[in-house]
Each structure stands twice: as structure tokens, then as C-alpha cells.
Give the backbone structure.
Amino acid sequence: MTAFRALLRRELRLALRGGGDMLTLVLFFVIVGAIVPFAVGPDQELLARIAPGIVWIAAFLAMLLGLDRLFRPDHEDGTMILLRQAELPLSAIVAAKLIVHWLVTALPLIVASPLLAVLLAMEGDALWRTICSLLLGTPALAAFGALGAAVTVSIRRGALISPILLAPLSIPVLIFGTGAVSVGQSGAAMLFLAALSLMAVALAPFAAALAISSAED
Amino acid sequence: MTAFRALLRRELRLALRGGGDMLTLVLFFVIVGAIVPFAVGPDQELLARIAPGIVWIAAFLAMLLGLDRLFRPDHEDGTMILLRQAELPLSAIVAAKLIVHWLVTALPLIVASPLLAVLLAMEGDALWRTICSLLLGTPALAAFGALGAAVTVSIRRGALISPILLAPLSIPVLIFGTGAVSVGQSGAAMLFLAALSLMAVALAPFAAALAISSAED
Amino acid sequence: MTQRHLFPPLTLCAEALQCGRGGMALTAPLSLTVESGQCLLLRGPNGTGKTTLLLTLAGIVPPLEGKLAIKGRDEDARVLHYCGHRNAIKPRLTVAENLDFWAEVNGPSGTSVDEALGEVGLGHLAELDAGYLSAGQGRRLALARLLVSQRPLWLLDEPTAALDVEGHALVTRLLDRHLSLGGMAIAATHDAITLPDSDRVRTLFLGVGR
Amino acid sequence: MTQRHLFPPLTLCAEALQCGRGGMALTAPLSLTVESGQCLLLRGPNGTGKTTLLLTLAGIVPPLEGKLAIKGRDEDARVLHYCGHRNAIKPRLTVAENLDFWAEVNGPSGTSVDEALGEVGLGHLAELDAGYLSAGQGRRLALARLLVSQRPLWLLDEPTAALDVEGHALVTRLLDRHLSLGGMAIAATHDAITLPDSDRVRTLFLGVGR
Amino acid sequence: MTLDTTPKQRWWNRLAHPGQFVAWTRPLLWPLTVVTALLFVAGLYLALFQSPEDYQMGHTVRIMYVHVPNAWLSQFVYATMAVSALGTLVWRHPMADVSMKAAAPLGALFTALALFTGALWGRPTWGTFWEWDGRMTSTLVLLFIYLGLIALWRAFDDQLRAARVIAVFTLVGAVNIPIIKFSVDWWSTLHQPASVFRADGPRMPGSILLPLFVMFFAFTFLFITLQLKAMHTEVKRRRVMGLQRRLAQGNAA
Ligand code: HEM
Ligand SMILES: Nc1ncnc2c1ncn2[C@@H]1O[C@H](COP(=O)(O)OP(=O)(O)OP(=O)(O)O)[C@@H](O)[C@H]1O
Ligand SMILES: Nc1ncnc2c1ncn2[C@@H]1O[C@H](COP(=O)(O)OP(=O)(O)OP(=O)(O)O)[C@@H](O)[C@H]1O
Ligand SMILES: [Mg+2]
Ligand SMILES: [Mg+2]
């Protein structure tokens, strides 16, 4: 257990030192979101309508950008090999990384979404639904991402996340996510999201661990 | 000159052997496009109205994904130090990388844009104008991107900082890009785009080279 | 020897073990046994599979043929330290933080972090960003990792790489103490490692055929 | 010596050169001159600034104090090869492709790629993915880079690291030939490098104060 | 390859040494503070009591006396940073780094104030806090640039190396800001036929211009004072960090 905590602490330190600090993370989402009006035009009610999609895309992008740093550095500087000799199983290690990854990429988005809401002229309850859907959905994105990153690291050196995993897994999340915000029957979508996240978070660590350990360095 | 060609060849090889990188970008591009209808709802003419903006946003975000690959690997395995002893100036090296970056990130997107056009219910000539505007505008995006990557090359997790730096710089490109597609005076916008790209591509290599050479240790 | 043993008596024995990379065999099938208190030196030209053999023993690379067992261990306990070419050091964390992390992840069963750092001669750099360490200092930090948590089997891949003269002495000292505590070590090296009592050391030459 | 010189006579001279990292001085101000055909060995404990000095000479790290000049060069020509701790090798390119690239980027003024690979003993691996090379093989590939394009000044950082006995001989051979062609070399090393005629070699001890 | 690092003897090189700079400029700090305070008193008095209400905006017009100076400073500070960046890149002037770093948060502050007061102003005048009006939007973008620079400064750990890199980006930003302004105006006219408020300065009566100018100088002096103070603290911070590093390094070489 103390080993797990040590891992969490270290991952957090690494994430927050050097460019990853909270200011940066929050800025990231606000700016990515604030770009949109320049492209689609400053029409308030239009913005309000696409706002959920924008927020979810921003989340997706942020997850993708962060993923690259999830396993590759450890794989390349030999840390992975040593972690496999550690007191705790590889899946636990992946889980720790997953948690931190969510904390430093997804959470700031959720924190920053009110700001985005103002810029994109979202009204109150849509904002609430957005936050809920993000809370429910981003874990799934993180988990699938971790799986993709693990497979990529083990198969190909130095490439973006393997798309074959990426697309089919994350598209449903995004669709349900946006659905949960915008459409009338957001309740059902929320349920789907929750289910997806539960399943993904439960399975991803083991799958990812398998992928990594099967990568003969 | 042969040195320059050698650089181009190597960068291309590395990019193409990486496997699904391009596929990832294109998938991301398409996913972004596919999300929006779910957010906006199936209102055809509204979709058609915001389509250019969506395409440009998608392109911008997709081009952020490839950025971290541009200089960091060379920086971390010591290649950059050696390249500074090469027969050709650092700015030329950056230029070569820039060209390849455009070829392997922007070009696939442009090829894939008809797909997006279908998803977003664009009609024919709008599609053409989109492709033209992308052809004219993406070089500027790539150039700014190279600059951002160069500035953040020595920062771990620079992946999240460069978008923050790039977004404000890219706003004119987005504005004129969408302007070139949608509005009546698309001609003027196209001209602005071309001018922007010319300027950016002309200046970025030197600025980036300066940044790299002062960040390198 | 007078000193009481710290580790339970273990025996690592491999029978007709053939290891290779990407499905292609590198070494001829080899059988070896290493007992507590013994050290096995792997020597041989570059690319003859020393690292591969160590990785196989560590269980990272699956062997192509033969079997491999460590007798006398209780199953769930981790028995080995691997110290490879790349000394997994995280920039952005201070030297002390790096070592702390490994102490907690591998179980702080060995000496304290400060002692270990002092032992390998990095005591004065404890608070420095580990990314700034020089090559040899990094190597020393990697060695310190072996001290903070006790494990009977050390697998060392060129432990003396990038170390200065005093560093070579350090490695010998550490190895000798580890053995005298009843540990075992397998080290691939190109430099000469001469322990005080030479009967503990055996040398295995790989790929002399080539 | 009988062999005619290939390189123009150059002199590298540093006056009261003080180099350091992050604005902090590491070495006392040192003045040195190296002439064509001479080799300077940098020795000293870990972390005394050998790599830093080499990087400063290569113009990567700005010096804190003092002057540094290479006399007799024509300005625009690149005169030096740097071969550092990290031997910049790209996985996903074959060994031959890696070397080809450097040959073309640095100008193919030296031996051909195949010869160079044979010289360093990687001839049989030319088509292997360079990411698979063993530590020593990677080092050899890094050394081959010095051969494919002629440059008068070699800056070598622990060239013998991870090399086997035959590899040490290789480094000595390469150095000797380079010097006899009128080149110069500055090498930081912990192992003994003994060239045939010892008057060519001078040794600079760093940080013995500490 | 001849790099010469002997300090050149130009007039501004005597300010190059951080310690000296602090020593020479500390005496200026108090007078500046006093002047700023006086200007603010006068300006606020004029603005609040001596200037007429607007016939349509009422008392809210007085926000302008805060808003416009901030809006102007938001651009002026960036100019300062750009000049400092030149100082860093071209003349390698040590204090240029410091001033560049010190100015970024101040610029962000003033820009945020311009946005905030503008938004406050917008509420009564347009009924919404935020309108994608050209000028406001480009100010928002400017704020983003400032924040990006701050994040960049925080991301680097070696401040000496950071300075040159960030200087490059600052200059690129300086080149881009006019382009951004232009494009945003093009965009806003594209999307909104008439800007909501047309506030053209010169046509204002003197009774508004005078307090505006006083406030304007007050804020500018405020910036100068804060900038000096920030530079001093930055110099101190670097000295401390240097010491810490030496300690961490063990040997005070
Ligand atoms: C977030 C909201 C706003 C922002 C970011 C903003 C920004 C600016 C900027 C950048 C300037 C130019 C200063 C210069 O030319 O040096 C300016 C000037 C001015 N603004 Fe605003 N503004 C905002 C809202 C408003 C509102 C709501 C009003 C009044 C209804 C207003 C009235 C003025 C006036 C009268 C000037 C001075 C005239 C001039 O300089 O041309 N602003 N503002
Ligand atoms: N993943 C891999 N796939 C295929 N071949 C590999 C792989 N990794 C290494 N090799 C090959 O296996 C051989 C042995 O590599 P290994 O690292 O074990 O050698 P080594 O004895 O450690 O050499 P050195 O003394 O240089 O460290 C090398 O020739 C290398 O080309
Ligand atoms: N970027 C940096 N910033 C601050 N200090 C640094 C940096 N890089 C290295 N150092 C410090 O500079 C000192 C010298 O490093 P250097 O790599 O030159 O030593 P070295 O002589 O090459 O040692 P080795 O023999 O182990 O290679 C080390 O103590 C290290 O802690
Ligand atoms: Mg090896
Ligand atoms: Mg070194």
C-alpha cells in the first residue's frame, strides 16, 4: 500500500513539475475552447449549442496529448523493467498512473469548464450536465487511452497512440458524452457513460499491464 | 543540398515507419467532425453553416498532436547536438523538419477533408473552397507549430504548453481560413491566408533555430 | 566466514538455458548454478548476449529453451535487483526523491536513503535535480538503489560503466559485502572486477566461438 | 612521420577558459593548446566537468569566462566531431541508414559507409534495426560516424564505454590513425588509452583538488 | 569559432550587473511611489467629482477612467517586454531578462483589469458581460498571450536558458499582435455589422479628456513603479536560487 502511495506521489510530482503545473493545464482547456468562436463565429446561441461538443473534444485532445507521457518515458529510460521487480503487481502500477493521468488532465478541464461556459454562452443547467458528464465519462477516456498507450509502447517505438484502439473505443464515449449534455434523454446517456467508465477503469489496468509485460523490452 | 535531401529522406522514413501516426491524425480529424452533429443535432443547414469552422478547428487540433514528435526525440537522444555540427545551418534543418511535418500531418488531413465534408453536409463548392483554404493555411499552422515545439523542446510535458502558446498565434489563420470558405469575400481571405503562410514559413525556421540553439545544452 | 548470513540460502540453477532475442537464439544452451555467497562474471565480446542472458534471468525476456529456477525462495517474495545499461533516473526529481521512491516501491528493507547516498558518494548532491547528474553520478545513483532494499540476487549489467577509479573500488566493495552477507550476484562486465577472496568468483565466457 | 598530413595544421587554444553549468563554475580557469597530431586526455573523478568542458569546446555550452579559438581554420567549415555519452541512434532506421544519414549530413568526405561499418565490426549487422543494437554495438556505430566524414578535431566523451577488449583496441587504432593524419583529439575517459607513440598524448587531470 | 565573453564597456553595461542595478535604482522607488499616489488622488478626484455624467450611460461612464488606461497599458507593457526581449537576444543584457520576466504578470494584470472593467461597463451598456466585439476580443487574445508567457516562465527551471528562448517567442508575439488585431477586427465586422459602442476618443469634451489623461499617467507610473519593484525581487530571487544550487551542488566552485 505504501508502495502504491509512493507511486502516486512520484507520478504527481513528475506531472506537476516542469510545465505541467495547474495553471498550464487549466489554461489549456480554456484556450482550446476559446479558439472555437473565431472559427464558427461569435453567434451566442450557436456557440451555446455546440459548446458541449467543444468541451468534450477539448477533453479528448487533452487526454491524447497527455497519453504520450504515460508509459513511454518509463519504458525508454528502463524504469519499466525495474518496476516489474517492484513489490506491487504491474496492474497496480498502471492503475496508479491512470489515476494521476486523470487527475492532471481531466480534472483541470472539469474545474475550468465554468470559464469555458461563460465564453461559450452556456446557460446554467447545461453547464451542470456538462460537468456531470465529464465526471462520468473522462475516466473511460483515460482508461482506453492508457490501454492504447501501453500497446503502442510495447509494439512500436516512438509513435502516436495506436489508432486502431483509439477510435472504436473513444467514439462512443464522446457521443454519449455530448448526448448527455445536449439531448433531452440525457439520463440514459449518463448511465451509458457511467457503465462505460466502470468497465473501462476496471479492465484497462490488467489489459495494459498484460500488453506491457508482453513487450520483451 | 544533398544534406538537406538526406534530412528530408530520414524524417520521412521515421514518420512513415512509425506506423499509424498519420492514421491517428486523420482519425482524430474525422472524430472531431463526427462529434459535432451529435452536439448540434441533425439540423442540416446549421451544420453546413458551421462546417468550415469545424473543419478548421479539427485541422488545428489535429496538427497539435504531431508536434511533440518534431524536435523532442532528437533533443533527448543527443541527435540535436550533433546536427548543430552538420554541414547545413540549424535553420535549414528546422525547415526540412517543417516540410516533412506538413507532409505527414497537414496533407493527410486535406485528403481526408471530403469525408468530413460529407459528415457535415457541405455542398460541393464549399468543399472546394475548404480544400483550397486548407492548402493555403496549413503551412502557417505548421510553421507556428514548429516554433512552439522549438520553444518547449527542453521542457518535459511541453506537449501541453505549446498549444497554449500556439492558439493565440493561430487565431488569424483560423479566422481567414473560415472566412475563405464561408463568406462572400473569400478572395480577400485567401490572399490573407497566403500572405500569412508565406511570412510564417519564411520566418519560423530562423526563430525556431534560435530557440533551439539557446535551449540546447 | 565469521559474519552471519542475512539472506536465506538460495541456489539459482539454469539447465540447458538458451536465450535469444526476437525468437533467434544468441547463446548456446548453457547450464549454470550460482549459490549464496557466489558471484558469476559474464564476459565476452559485444553483442554476444550478456544483457540478454541477464534479462532472461530477470524474467523480462522469455527463454527459448531450457528451464530456470531459484531454489529455496518463497514464491511471492521478490528476490532480485536488476541494474541495467540504462539507469532509470527521473529528471525533475531530486536525487533523494529518486532513491526514496525506489526504497518505498521495493520495500525499505536495506540501509536508509541518506546512508546509501553517502555510501556511493552522492551525499552532497541529495537535493540536486537528478537530471543534472553526470554519467558517473547517475551510475552511482543506480547502484545506491541496490542498497536501500535488501534482495539476495543482484543482476548487474556493466556496473562499472562510466565510473572513475574510486567508483570501481566502490563496486568491488559493495559486491564483496553483498556476497559476505550471503547474497549472490551475476555481473556482465568488460572491466576487470577482482574481489578480495577469489574463490567466490567464477567467470563465464560467452560467444568466444565467434 | 612518413605519412603525409591530410588536414591543414590547426591549433585549438583556450585562454583562462572557465566552463560551468547553469551559470555555476565547475572547473578552475584553464588554458590549453592542442596542435595537429596531438591528443589530449581528460581524466578526473565523476562530476568534475569533463563532459561540460567537451561541450564547451564544441560550442554547445557557453563558457563562463575566457577565450576559445581554433587557429588556422577557414571560418565557415565545420571542424569538429562530437561523440557524447548518448550515441544519437534512431530506432526504426537500419544501422546502414543511420550511418548513411550522418555521412550525407556531415559530408561524405571520409570512408564509405560499408567500410566504416566493417572497420568498427558491425558489417554483418548493416541491415538490422538500429534500435536492437546492444550497448557496445551502439557505441561502435557512434564511432563509425567519425569515419564517414573527415573532421580534424574529435571530441570524444568516454569513447570506450561499454566496449569489449577488442573495442578498446579499435578506439586506440582509430585515434592513432586520426592523429597520424594530422588530426587532433580530446577525449574524456576513465579507462587507460595508450597510443603507440606516447609523445603525442598529453593528459589533463580535472578536479583533483576535490 | 571565437567566442569572446569579456564585458564590453558601454554606458549601459554599468547597469548590466544586477547588484549594481538594484543599488542604483532603489533610490528611485520611493519618489515614484509618491508621484503615483498623488496622480491617483488627483485623477480619481477629477474623475469622480469634476467630470459630467454621460447622457445615456450615467455614472457608469466613470468606469472608462479606469478602463481606458488599463486597455492602453495592456499594449504598452507588451511593448516593454518586446524591447527587453531585444535586449536579451541582441545585447545579451542581463537585466533585460529580468525586466522581461517581471513585466509578464503585470501585463496580464492590466489586461485582465481592462477586460474586467470593460465587462462591468458592458453590463449596463449592452446588457451582457461579454460581447465578441473586435476590440474586446483582441484584448482577450492578448491576455492569453500573457498567460502563455507566464506559464512558459514557470515551466523552465534554468532561468538563464529560459530567457533567450522566451525572448524569441515574445518577439514573435510582438510581430503577430498587430496581425491578430487586424484579423479580429475583420472578423468582428464580418459577423456584426455595427460595433455596439463607438467610442472615438478625440471627440470627447475636455472635462472628460483631462481626468482621462491624469488617470492615464497615474496608471503608467503605477506600472513603472511595480516593474522596478518586481525586477528587484526577481534579482533577489535569482541570487537565493543560485546559493541554493551551490549548496545542492556541494562545492562552491
Ligand atoms: C471586456 C470588455 C472590453 C474590453 C476588453 C475593451 C477593450 C478596450 C480597448 C483595447 C480599448 C483601446 C484602448 C486604446 O485604444 O488604447 C478600449 C477603449 C475604449 N473602450 Fe473598451 N473595452 C471593453 C468594453 C468597453 C465598453 C463596454 C465600453 C463602453 C460602453 C468601452 C468603451 C471604451 C472607450 C470609450 C474607449 C476609449 C476610446 C478609445 O480609446 O478609442 N469599452 N477598450
Ligand atoms: N529486441 C531485439 N530483437 C532482435 N535482436 C536483438 C534485440 N535486442 C538485441 N538484439 C541483438 O541481440 C544481440 C545481443 O544483445 P545484447 O545486448 O545481449 O549483447 P551484450 O552481450 O549485452 O553486448 P554488450 O556487451 O554490447 O552489452 C545483439 O547482437 C543485438 O543485435
Ligand atoms: N544542466 C546542468 N545544470 C547544473 N549542473 C549540471 C548540469 N549538468 C551537469 N551538472 C553538474 O555539473 C557537474 C559536471 O558534470 P559533467 O557531466 O561535466 O561531469 P563529468 O566530468 O562528465 O562526469 P562523468 O565522468 O561522470 O561523466 C556534475 O556535478 C553535475 O551535477
Ligand atoms: Mg549489454
Ligand atoms: Mg561525462
In short: The beta strands of chain E are 3-4. Residues B 217; C 128, 132-137, 162; D 21-22, 26, 46-52 surround adenosine-5'-triphosphate (ligand 3) (CB under 6 Å). The interface with chain A takes residues 129-130, 132, 137, 140, 144, 147-148, 150-151, 154-155, 157, 184, 187-188, 190-192 of chain E (CB under 8 Å). Chain E has a mean pLDDT of 82.
